Structure prediction request, 284 residues.
Amino acid sequence: MFFFLSSIVYAQSLPSVAVFSLFSNDLNDNISMTVDDLVYSFIRELRTYRIVDMRSDSPPLDFGVPDGTDYAFFGTMTSQPDGIKLELVLKGGPFGVTRLISRVYENSNRILLESRILVRDLFDQSIRLPDPDEPVFVRNRQEKPIVTDTSTLEEKALVSVTNIDSLAGSWRGEDGIEKIMLLRGGRGVAVLSSGVSLSLEVIVSNGDLIVRQKGSSNPRQFDNLPDPVAKQAVNVAPPLEWRFLISKDQKTLSGTKKTVIIKNDGKNILKMENDERPVSWVRD
Prediction:
């Protein structure tokens, strides 16, 4: 009981951050929503802030810090000749400081794979960032409303899974997987496009849904590799693992998949690198 109460007091003592949706006026809506969801999941990973999800609300007209919170988070995505610029802003704190960090990524996939570092550096107050000019999103605010369909944003906002059994049923949507069957009791099965079936275990940890391959690997799950290399991969590759949040309408699981990239010469594994990529599963 003491530990539980101490945890509550500690959480309440953390500075709070009002997180608003990323704004874009020239990118595909699906790309914008996917990046917004993933950036929010990276912010939720931070253990030194208390997160207040305000992505279904329009930001204050002056882009100030909402009452009752210590900081406000905003951001933009804009097309550039050499890719997509992601700009993130953190305002507030004891001295009312505005922190801004940005980077141009080659494409949206690079944003999904690499933006965790940008989020981490923005919120790490020990890292000194250049003094910002007027943020891009303030200059562009009148070009397009930040929230065009509040009901849709509300339904698609990601939240933690609280009941594993509520996920029971058929899911789909990931390349290379024909169907995922989630069963009651924390079990599941993934049917790959190669025809092989993988047993899954399903748990909730720190607010995230974790789906992990259970049991031995099968060479046919490495159908992108030559047969001799796939047989070696069975013995060295770690189990597949997914980490998800769920949309408020309970129809979409969005998050990341942990796997590996295996470099080979056609006969032997030369190098194996960890890989993490964004994925979504949609309820059938």
In short: The mean pLDDT is 82. The CA atoms of residues 25 and 145 lie 9 Å apart. The longest strand covers residues 269-283. DSSP finds six helices and 14 strands in the chain.
